[in-house]
Design brief:
The chain is of the alpha/beta class and 422 residues long. 33% of the residues lie in helices and 20% in strands. Helix 6 links the parallel strand 3 and strand 4. The structure holds 2-acetamido-2-deoxy-beta-D-glucopyranose (4 copies). The site of one 2-acetamido-2-deoxy-beta-D-glucopyranose has 5 residues, from loops. Its EC number is 3.2.1.-. Keywords: Disulfide bond, Glycoprotein, Glycosidase, Hydrolase, Lipid metabolism, Lysosome, Signal.
Length: 422
């Protein structure tokens, strides 16, 4: 019954969203690649030229994105995280890339990325220093925004380290204004609520007006416990964070770690399914030069990406926790519903949940067309309210299905048509 309480509370609290940041960007969740989880602050290009943070890394990822179908699947932004700059600003007070690791400079790199039909993201920090100790933007917001615009950068991830928390709102807002005033559309990815939560409940109306997406919770790492902690945090704060999400502004549960080392294939499927349900940015952090075909197939699964990018732009939420299953549901356009059933029992074998137990199943009166997307594609056909379909889910895996309501009148018509043909 807990689930029904969730659902009802959310339905009453959903208001026609606060205004989103008006820069025309992120009308659906951002898709791309971001270096941090996989490559972190590896700056030793002498010892590890393949994997160090250098222009070469982003150029190679861009090449792979074109060659291996990533761009075609929708992944568009190639994003730099921390550790790209020099420790000193230049004589005019501008940030500059580390000259040894970025000999061509960022503008040249942006040109290369654009020539591949992709976009370039960069990283800076609202405070005195970046998290890894490079120069921060505090006191330099206009200069830095203009520098990024001059370089033709397309996205800014703006971190929140080394900042007086009482000034977070001002800092993030001032940078948003500075970006706008450059006249270049730059997607603005914030961490304002993440750094504010320890002190006060963030104002999500203000955040949505300021940012295109915003991190709420800890960095993801390459482990199932990290994915679970993000899902648990999201479910327990969904009344606050789900309503403000929509076209132009999204909650960001952090990077996809699919294709790395720490998640089993079932767990990778769970991350992909739940990130789509949460209308999360799909920013992979992996090595596209070395990725197994199964992980690649999952990340490029068109049916899951279609859920992620659904034009209605509503974030899904957890509707029921029952028998160690968690059901998450996302309303889609055309009155369809995406449903993820996560098996949280990490012992034994596959377990089944009757589809009738899903709270959103109530839209299936008189019937629904049921399509299973994960763990494998299956057309489960047109099902009545009393359907006996059972979704089988592996431990720490997820079954992902879509429900398409079908009216009886439509069906009578179809029936008549068939009879006429016969
Ligand atoms: C700047 O903001 C105005 C008003 O919100 C908006 O109309 C305009 O498109 C924005 N420009 C950019 C480059 O984001
Ligand atoms: C934000 O801008 C306002 C107006 O220019 C200024 O008074 C304030 O100090 C700025 N805050 C920060 C943190 O930069
Ligand atoms: C939250 O921000 C909005 C928009 O900036 C503002 O109108 C509102 O008063 C703020 N709410 C609170 C509780 O501070
Ligand atoms: C049900 O969905 C499947 C998969 O999208 C589709 O091929 C089939 O035509 C649909 N059936 C009906 C009756 O709409």
């Amino acid at each position: 019954m807990i689930g029904f309480v969730f659902l009802l509370r959310l339905l009453v609290s959903i208001r026609p969203g606060a205004e989103a940041l008006d820069n025309g960007l992120a009308l659906t969740p951002t898709m791309g690649w971001l270096h941090w989880e996989r490559f972190m602050c590896n700056i030793d290009c002498d010892k590890d030229p393949e994997n160090c943070i250098s222009e070469r890394l982003y150029m190679q990822m861009a090449d792979m994105m074109v060659k291996e179908g990533w761009r075609e699947a929708g992944y568009e932004y190639v994003c730099i995280d921390d550790c790209w700059p020099s420790h000193q600003r230049d004589a005019q007070g501008r940030l500059q890339a580390d000259p040894k690791r970025f000999p061509g400079g960022i503008k040249k790199l942006a040109e290369y990325i654009h020539s591949k039909g992709l976009k370039l993201g960069i990283y800076a920090d609202v405070g005195k220093n970046t998290c890894a100790g490079y120069p921060g933007s505090l006191g330099h917001y206009e200069t830095d925004a203009q520098t990024f615009a001059d370089w033709n950068v397309d996205l800014l991830k703006f971190d929140g380290c080394f900042m007086d928390w009482t000034l977070l709102g001002e800092g993030y807002t001032n940078m948003s204004t500075a970006l706008n005033q450059t006249g270049r559309s730059i997607l603005y990815s914030c961490e304002w609520p993440l750094y504010e939560w320890p002190f006060k409940k963030p104002n999500y109306t203000a955040i949505r007006e300021t940012c295109n997406h915003w991190r709420n919770y800890n960095d993801v790492d390459d482990s199932w416990s990290s994915i679970k902690s993000i899902l648990d945090w999201t479910a327990s704060h969904q009344d606050t964070i789900v309503p403000p999400a929509g076209p132009g502004g999204w909650n960001d549960p952090d990077m996809l770690v699919i294709g790395n080392f720490g998640l089993s294939h079932d767990q990778q499927e769970s991350q992909m399914a739940l990130w789509a349900i949460m209308a999360a940015p799909l920013l992979m952090s992996n090595d596209l030069r070395h990725i197994c075909p199964r992980s690649k197939g999952l990340l490029q699964n068109r049916r899951i990406i279609e859920i992620s990018q659904d034009p209605l732009g509503r974030q899904g939420f957890c509707t029921i926790k029952v028998d160690n299953f968690e059901v998450w549901e996302r309303p889609l356009s055309h009155k369809r519903l995406a449903v993820a059933v996560l098996n949280r029992q990490e012992t034994g074998g596959p377990r089944g949940l009757v589809i009738r137990a899903v709270p959103g199943w109530k839209i299936c009166d008189p019937q629904c067309n049921v399509t299973q997307i994960l763990p494998e594609y299956r057309e489960l056909g047109v099902q009545p309210p009393k359907s006996k379909v059972v979704l089988s889910v592996n431990p720490s895996g997820t079954a992902l299905v879509t429900l398409t309501p079908i009216s009886s009148r439509f069906n009578m018509y179809e029936l008549q048509k068939q009879e006429t043909i016969l």
